[in-house]
């Protein structure tokens, strides 16, 4: 698919469709400085329990209609822009009714922008009987330019490693994908009073960073290939947690000047520093934050950590703590076929 025109095979159109796309954690870039020619490369995990959900159907009149809960109404112009782009590219001009039922928090490090674009795009394709996959939709809607984790996560879930983009017209290739162990849990530490960098501010921050040391890139790649991924494959929690924490520490210090510290939110930092000093956990911040995470070996251990942190008084009033699983499947789609 290009930004100018698209030729699409057809499937059977749906009269109505609901798309639910899970959030993701970005666990770290491997080489933001392109020391070997490819920039970025990233490790990410799709998580259950937080998602974007969108309903769509063709409109009964000539006007598009977009609705959302009050907290998510700022997302409606973005959805409209995505639908307008796809109308222009495909030539499908029918009016559409879209209801955003739930939305991932914007600019929180959970992949909200990519999942919003892909839910809207997938719904549009289903309604018009267009066989467009997540990769085609992402390219059309200008998503996935730095990390391929969100697009691959939409398709298949799990723990995903991508190789970084080789050009502006191709998505980063998926190098490895593993099912995340079902017994492990992710404690999300969310701060709704802050947002991470995005848009022009993000681009400016990346441009102003010093060169990423090749030695740090080599260490990040070594950690990922020879510690984190083997530990997931073998369900060996301790080296996995140690590897994720070490990867996050290196990347976090590199980005600290752009985000005000290793963590965007001091309140999140307080909780994660406290957990990291007392428990075996994979600790870090997803993308630009402010969302932080602690990966723990079981639900019971995660619940004990939450209770202990609250009892110790380190959980600030602005924070939400949620225990979620990794998700080893991608987006779900429920559609009603048109009458034969």
Write the layout of secondary structure elements.
Layout: E1 14-31, E2 40-58, E3 65-67, H1 76-90, E4 96-102, H2 112-128, H3 134-140, H4 149-156, E5 159-162, E6 174-178, E7 185-191, H5 199-208, H6 214-233, H7 237-259, H8 266-278, E8 282-285, E9 292-296, H9 299-311, E10 319-324, E11 332-337
Parallel strand pairs: 3-4
Antiparallel strand pairs: 1-2, 1-11, 2-4, 2-5, 5-6, 7-9, 7-10, 8-9
Helix pairs in contact: 1-2, 6-7
Descriptive notes:
The longest helix has 23 residues, at 237-259. The model is unreliable at 1-8 (pLDDT under 50). A hairpin with an 8-residue loop joins strand 1 (14-31) and strand 2. The chain has helices at residues 76-90, 112-128, 134-140, 149-156, 199-208, 214-233, 237-259, 266-278, 299-311, and strands at residues 14-31, 40-58, 65-67, 96-102, 159-162, 174-178, 185-191, 282-285, 292-296, 319-324, 332-337. Helix 1 crosses helix 2 and helix 6 (214-233) runs antiparallel to helix 7 (237-259). It is an alpha+beta fold and 340 residues long. Keywords: Kinase, Transferase. Residues 229-313 form the GHMP kinase C-terminal domain. This is Beta-ribofuranosylaminobenzene 5'-phosphate synthase.
